[in-house]
TrEMBL record:
Residues 8-63 are annotated as: Disordered. PROSITE patterns: PROTEIN_KINASE_ATP (PS00107), PROTEIN_KINASE_DOM (PS50011). This is non-specific serine/threonine protein kinase. Residues 18-28 have a biased composition (Low complexity). Its main location: membrane. ATP binds at K119. Its EC number is 2.7.11.1. GO terms for molecular function: ATP binding; protein serine/threonine kinase activity. The keyword Nucleotide-binding applies.
Length: 422
């Protein structure tokens, strides 16, 4: 299980990640010391030579500057909760540490114990600490049904040195990536996939548009979407999140990080990060739900390794489109719904980020698909998909009309020359 896994850095034993084309800026700083004395790592940006927008950003409050319901744990408490970080309770291992299932006392009812997931960061230098600080600062101030809840943290010393741990609500149904895997014994039904698409869109809409400040996730992918006991989807792993651009600015300049196959092409080439980078990643994820395939899979034949390139020839014909649907699904009863979801994916994958819809617009489109599927009503034209660059068209369009044209991404593949695909 790859829950809560960080994908940042160039360690050989870590999952493949996108590395900065020009290297990390020397202007990047990190936060040291006790969490309660630290400033937010969200303000510590990598600044390009020709952009000063990061320097002019508004201040992001540190944990000590705001009220917080986060619990502060000791190492001994978490050792006891996780059977001394035993392998028998290990849930998974990622690039920046292991995750364990644990039991802690409830603050409301001390005799009762609640299940949690405890992430213990490895000792791999400053970067792990940066991710830890960012995670605490982000999840310490946001609260939404579709974001994994951070219960508390630990910044303590023991005989082994400095310990950095995070305690989350436990998500018993693991990650979406796990269930989409061909090895999964519990493949997701189409109705569950639509609900997951809806939940994920809600989470991103909240981060982008429903707070006084904007948070860009920057590492949206199926392994970072976890499922609770009722199969509600929640975004997790905010170690790479960044505060959005301040008023009057168009983007944030950062080092290029993320996971291969999900990162937006303009971000890879320029390092200019916007919320539309998350929108691109969401579009990739929708094709994951439709096909059951990973965005980049080196174990497949050469022509099928890159998901977006593989699906392209199948999008112009209804009969061909059926061939890309996950074979574990009942294709006859979901073809129209899947086509409509592909329309949304195509809107997200437009080459020019300015022409991609906002997450709130995407959420509205997905809501319509979910509603029509739940009611088992005839599939109606997707009205939200008729909106183009902020204006509505009166003309109804079919699925075929809404496929990307020759000037869009699918027919003019974005191939950044400076990016080496591993």
């Amino acid at each position: 299980m790859k829950c809560f896994a960080f994908h940042y850095g160039d360690k050989k034993d870590e999952p493949k990640s996108i590395k900065s084309i020009s290297g990390r800026s020397n202007s990047s700083t990190y936060v040291e010391g006790d969490m309660r004395r630290s400033g937010s790592e969200l303000n510590s940006q990598n600044i390009s030579d020709n952009s000063t927008d990061s320097l002019r950003r508004t201040s992001f409050p540190s944990l000590s500057q705001r009220p917080s319901n986060l619990r502060v744990f000791t190492v001994s408490e978490l050792k006891s909760a996780t059977k001394n970080f035993g392998r028998s309770v290990m849930l998974g291992e990622g690039g920046f540490g292991c995750v364990y299932k644990g039991l802690i006392k409830s603050t409301e009812d001390p005799p009762r114990k609640i299940e949690v997931a405890v992430k213990q960061l490895g000792r791999r230098g400053m970067q792990g600490h940066k991710e830890w600080v960012t995670e605490v600062n982000v999840l310490g101030i946001v609260e939404h049904p579709n974001l994994v809840k951070l219960v508390g943290y630990c910044a303590d010393d023991d005989e082994r040195g400095i310990q950095r741990l995070l305690v989350y609500e436990y998500m018993p149904n693991r990650s979406v990536e796990h269930h989409l895997s061909p090895r999964s014994e519990t493949p997701l039904s189409w109705s569950k996939r639509l609900k997951i698409a809806q939940d994920a869109a809600r989470g991103l809409t909240y981060l982008h548009e429903e707070m006084d400040f904007q948070i860009i996730f920057r590492d949206f992918k199926s392994s970072n979407i976890l499922l609770d006991e009722q199969w509600n989807a929640k975004l997790s792993d905010f170690g790479l999140a960044r505060l959005g651009p301040s008023e009057g600015l168009t983007h944030v300049s950062t080092a290029v990080v993320g996971t291969m196959g999900y990162a937006a092409p303009e971000y890879i080439q320029t390092g200019r990060l916007t919320s539309k980078s998350d929108v691109w990643s969401y579009g990739v994820f929708l094709y994951e739900l439709i096909t059951g395939r990973r965005p980049l899979d080196r174990n497949r034949p050469k022509g099928e390794q890159k998901l977006l390139e593989w699906v392209r020839p199948y999008l112009s014909d209804v009969k061909k489109f059926q061939l890309i649907l996950d074979p574990r699904l009942d294709r006859k009863h979901l073809i129209k719904s899947a086509q409509r979801l592909a329309v949304i994916a195509n809107r997200c994958l437009v080459k020019n980020p300015k022409n991609r819809p906002k997450m709130s617009e995407i959420l509205e489109m997905v809501n319509r698909i979910v509603e029509s599927s739940t009611a088992a009503s005839p599939q109606l034209p997707l009205k939200s998909a008729e909106v183009s660059q902020g204006t509505e068209t009166k003309k109804k369009r079919t699925f075929m009309d809404l496929l990307p044209g020759e000037n869009n991404w699918f027919f003019r593949l974005w191939r950044p020359k400076l990016l080496k695909v591993c």
